[in-house]
Amino acid sequence: MTLRTSLSVALGLKYPIIQGPMAGGPTTPTLVAAASNAGALGSLGAAYLPPQTLQEQIAEIRRLTDGPFNVNLFVPSPFETDPARIRRAGELLAPYRKELGIEDPGTPSSFEEDFGEQLGVVLEERVPVFSFTFGSVGPELTGRITESGATVLGTATTVEEGIKLEEDGVDGVVAQGAEAGGHRGTFLADFRDALIGTMALVPQMVDAISLPVIAAGGVMDGRGLAAALALGAGAAQMGTAFLTCEESGAHPAFKEAVLGAAEDQTAVTRAFSGRAARGIKNRFLLEVGAHEDEIPAFPIQNALTKDVRATAQSQDRPEFMSLWAGQGVRLARATTVAELVEKLTGDAEAALGSAADQTGGAGC
Hints:
The structure is a single chain. By secondary structure, the protein is an alpha/beta fold. It folds into 2 domains: 1-76 and 112-247 and 336-355, TIM Barrel (Alpha-Beta Barrel), CATH 3.20.20.70; 79-110 and 259-330, no CATH class. The chain has helices spanning 6-11, 29-37, 51-64, 83-100, 115-125, 138-147, 159-167, 198-208, 222-230, 240-243, 252-259, 283-289, 300-304, 306-314, 337-360; strands spanning 17-19, 42-45, 69-74, 129-133, 151-156, 172-176, 182-183, 213-216, 235-238, 266-269, 277-280. Strand 2, helix 3 and strand 3 (69-74) form a beta-alpha-beta unit. Helix 3 runs parallel beside helix 5. The longest helix is centred in the C-terminal third of the chain and has 24 residues, at 337-360. It is globular. The two termini are 26 Å apart.
């Protein structure tokens, strides 16, 4: 039994697998290229990259692979610069800065990279696949990206969001279940109302829109891939499964935390970035998370905590790192990308074959 779907064929993939675009360091050009070379779709999480760095990393990916790859950006949302909330965030961060031995850098002059400039690089480089999270870029911009030759994928956490993305002209929708690690892509509702499990979300999305649906959230092995395809998905997107690969740029302490975590040790928090994201519970998540209603929204909180997170990495202090991971963490393995993809596909084929054998002659 071969793992081929209309989406995998359209994207030029050997397998219906998308390596999740994890911003902040894990998705190095080496990881992206390794995934593409293994027959999956490698994805660069580029939300935090300055335009020049983004251009350099795209060039490096192309040097390392001839296969298709994806670039992912965060859609910017309006945000309020509230001095009182910024001041309160500084008060909450002060004990951690003291413990890490760093001075308060003060309020940054800007809070996020310029999305327009980042997108300009994507258009100029004519990347094969472009995906986005945190909203919709609208029909006009979607059309411009499509005209550049890219397949456009949007992220939805509810059926309503998927319908909106289809109306705006995307080519496929990533259905992000509540189990997924990292930032929630919710943009039409409160994230608390959009924590719908992958198994419930995917078939409803498949029935509601005419576009290919990509299952994301909790898919860690061949059984999960087989289940996603059985639910009608055209592919599965996996982040945590690739996070602990040899080629991942995740900090060693981050990888170790994922490999040692269990399914009940993650939580959705605003503590690190000001936007809801799922990660492994640690001291920072629990302590600052107790004051989530007092901190600024994304991207302000994300910029304010940057020095704490960066210093924690340099000092090997995982208790202060944003350890983004999904609920399938117990299934994480230390391996290479090629070995992971080979096992994913072999086990998925076996699972689908076994299911066919068990139901083939069954009666009611």
